[in-house]
Amino acid sequence: MNMNDTLFLFLCTLLVWLMTPGLSLFYGGLVQSKNVLNTVMQSMSAIVIVTFAWILFGFSFSFGNGNLLFGDFTYIGLSHVGFSTQSAISEHIPLALFMLFQLMFCTIAVSILSGSIAEKMKFIPYLIFVFLWVVCVYSPVAHWVWGGGWIDKIGAIDYAGGTVVHITSGVSGLVLAIMIGAGKNFDKRPPHNLIITLIGGILVWFGWYGFNVGSALTFDKIAMISFVNTALAASAGALGWSIIEY
Fold first, then answer.
1. pTM above 0.85, yes or no
2. N or C: more exposed end of the chain, with fewer CB within 10 A?
3. What backbone torsions phi and psi does residue 90 show, to the nearest 5 degrees?
4. What share of the chain in percent tops pLDDT 90?
């Protein structure tokens, strides 16, 4: 076990956690004032619901041995998940820390898709959907790509969740948006508070350094390149948006 890598991933895990409150503020500032609390809680409640879904089933279904489609029950309820390492998953960091880092990825995926149903979905059905989505959608895809599943076997590389996080949340968000619909007077809903949105965007930007750099699981050449590219890409995106808006 490498203590430097352990501390590094611990800090990156905290940064990724910060992205969910950031997204809650980002979305909260864009909706109408009467829907702010519901919208913010849709993102923040993801931390709670996803945590229980992940520790009960999700982590085991994602990283258990299983087959090419699904993980097995090896880590169900965090069985055998502790401070020791697991050579097949993380040779130099505690398995429990790796589990928490992956939990944050799952949480942010839920927060991302919640933006597609802002102001349009009741809270309790949303919570039920989140639990089922983690177990039935996110976890199997995570196993396909990172847990030794069929996508992993064909040699595909997903460094920081382009497939597992963004495709699952993006496609799911699109399906939800199509099923629920835009509702009435969609074009007449001005943002509630763009300053809150800006603060949320800053927190997401800050957390993304932990998201991308931490995916190397150690601070090596790959992590350094990720750090530089994340800074450049974020600034380029902000500049492009600014030009278009102007």
1. yes
2. C
3. -145, 105
4. 72
